[in-house]
Design a protein that fits this description.
alpha+beta; Immunoglobulin-like; 8-stranded parallel barrel; 7 helices; about 20% helix; binds alpha-D-galactopyranuronic acid
């Protein structure tokens, strides 16, 4: 059965997948009034995007999905959704029990004191745009509709394990693991529980925890000198961490997550993974597919990563939102490095819901994805206002949320403001979106443009002197199958030549620590501002929306593998120079 993660997260806690057939009706198809439908006209698979159903390709509005869930005396139902696009209202037996905005972050709803047996679960889904939505807007990617990621129903005791945060700490060549466990109490009285953590043969009993009714409480500890191997892209060793909750002598609950022992730091102009410089080369990848919309099945995610591996890539930027955790699990398992960002692309800071919604998206991203070793940095606010004083304040606000929740990873945002940017002092890594040869400049202008940018960055004017740089977007469009001897714009030949020039410039600059081509695959866009895009698609993919390679594929493959070989040669030379110096 399809679950939220690629591995089993509970041996003790009862868990069932909610994936499969649900009843379904859209607002257009309802012929009744009232909060919830009386009649459902069809069924739908969960997870899926309703746009993949014939007749609903362009449906934007409300729809209702219904199933049943089993409850048990003395337990609470915990419904966990990997993603509902884009606003969910959850009802049990007709009673409203939960609300969540944003398609791209998981959420849970805990419903205590239900009678033994089956209960009706209805999820109202809304993917409309308007005053209620600051992040899901008319944009250069599509906001689909539905329960678009897996969902589960769990039975949790009065006090249960809500979250584990695990941070590997490198200490003199050995590894420790700092753990923070959050418990939640849905009962009506204060309860005390025992907590223990096991990983890689280590075992640690934490202090007993008292949790007030309807509240949460945390307990921390450090497992020392663990006998583990580093997590690196070449050997992505993963370890299961099991948290056990005890009530007296009884095992009451458990939670299993996974960690990789790695440390990521910025040092001068370099990005260090476990103390060694790392170069990130890869793509921006939208969760979009010609057959599945945003609800990409695990098997298709694997294909995407295998294609990236074939192209010589080790890096994915989750433009412009947190990704499905199964994809992040695959990146953990396969050794891909990830830049994950909270949900924003050219959003307006003066939208009445912006501050609340960007804070929620950012907090939920870190709260749910903290343990993934593949996530090397947090991003935010893609191409937003990083020039005005008010825009700077918003960048400070969001970056502060990130640093408060996680000071173990570098922070960045992708800027298209070049030397007008007034926020370079706020980030650890400077990231530029540049489209030399597509939107501005000639096809071979990338190198000179980068030189100018770096000169400004390393001056007093920028606030970002000597910071490492990621070229976070560059590329050009090609209509799949459009090939012409004249190599006109929009031909696959034009795109291939443009990427060749851009990669030549960006893969070979000492202050550049990473490149992310825009973009991995063509993606659907909305029909407002971006309606003029050919096929109403963003056609800058190296592969089409069906993962069919364009001519650029072989150019990128050659460039990326060549860059890796060159770096390996340089590293060998440096090592032998160090040896001869001794
Ligand atoms: C911007 C934006 C991307 C995409 C790109 C393009 O850099 O960040 O989401 O819209 O432009 O294709 O023009």
């Amino acid at each position: 059965m399809t679950m939220l993660r690629n591995f089993c997260q509970h041996d003790i806690r009862p868990v069932e997948s909610l994936c499969g057939r649900w009843e379904f009706v859209t607002a257009d198809d309802r012929n009744d009034k009232g909060k919830l439908p009386k009649r459902y006209t069809r069924s739908i698979h969960v997870p899926s995007a309703w746009e993949q159903l014939p007749g609903l390709e362009n449906y934007r509005g409300k729809a209702w999905l219904r199933t049943t869930v089993p409850a048990a005396e003395g337990w609470a139902l915990r419904l966990v959704f990997g993603g509902v696009s884009h606003t969910a209202d959850v009802f049990i037996d007709g009673k409203h029990v939960g609300h969540h905005y944003d398609a791209f972050t998981p959420f849970d709803v805990v419903v205590p004191r239900l009678s033994e047996g089956d209960h009706e679960l209805v999820v109202q889904v809304d993917n409309s745009f308007g005053e209620h939505s600051a992040l899901h807007i008319d944009n250069d990617y599509y906001t689909y509709g539905g329960i678009t990621r897996p969902a589960e129903v769990q039975l949790v005791p009065p006090v249960y394990i809500d979250r584990l945060f695990a941070l590997p700490v490198r200490r003199g060549g050995k590894w420790d693991l700092d753990v923070r466990v959050r418990l939640a109490n849905w009962s009506r009285k204060t309860e005390t529980r025992g907590v223990a953590v096991m990983v890689a043969g280590g075992f640690l009993e934490l202090d007993e925890v008292s949790v007030k009714p309807g509240s949460t409480a945390e307990v921390t500890g450090r497992l020392k000198d663990l006998d583990v191997s580093d997590w690196t892209p070449d050997s992505p060793e993963l370890y299961e961490v099991e948290v056990l909750l005890t009530e007296g002598d009884e095992l009451a609950d458990d939670l299993i997550d996974r960690v990789g022992f790695r440390e990521i730091k910025v040092s001068g102009k370099k990005l260090l993974l476990n103390g060694e410089p790392i170069f990130l080369q890869g793509y921006n990848r939208h969760e979009d597919h010609g057959q599945f919309g945003c609800a990409i099945p695990l098997e298709a995610m694997v294909t995407d990563l295998e294609i990236l591996r074939d192209l010589g890539c080790n890096f994915v930027r989750t433009c412009h939102y947190p990704n499905d955790q199964r994809f992040l699990d695959l990146c953990d398992e396969l050794g891909f490095c990830v830049w994950e960002e909270s949900h924003a692309r050219q959003v307006k800071f003066d939208h009445p819901k912006f501050r609340e919604q960007i804070a929620d998206s950012t907090r939920e991203m870190i709260d749910w994805h903290y343990n993934h070793p593949s996530i090397l940095m947090w991003g935010c606010l893609n191409e937003c206002d990083s020039v005005s004083a008010s825009g700077r304040k918003e960048h400070q606000r969001v970056i502060e949320i990130i640093r408060e929740m996680d000071d173990s990873r570098p922070v960045t945002f992708a800027s298209n403001k070049a030397t007008d940017d007034r926020c370079m002092d706020l980030v650890d890594i400077v990231s530029w979106n540049r489209y030399q040869g597509w939107y501005h400049g000639g096809p071979d202008s990338a190198g000179d443009d980068l030189k100018e940018l770096i000169k400004w960055l390393n001056s007093d004017a920028s606030g970002g002197r000597n910071k490492p740089v990621i070229m976070s977007e560059f590329g050009g469009g090609a209509i799949p199958g459009y090939r012409r001897p004249n190599h006109a714009k929009w031909t696959e030949e034009f795109q291939a030549e443009l990427l060749d020039h851009q990669l030549e410039a960006y893969l070979n600059h000492t202050q550049v620590v990473g490149v992310a081509i825009w973009q991995f695959c063509d993606c659907r866009v909305t029909t407002g501002h971006f309606n003029s895009r050919p096929r109403t698609m963003n056609n800058k993919g190296t592969v089409s929306e069906y993962r069919l390679p364009k001519l650029a594929y072989d150019v990128v493959k050659r460039r990326m593998h060549e860059a890796t070989r060159n770096r390996q040669k340089q590293q060998k030379k440096q090592k032998s120079r160090k040896k001869t110096k001794r």
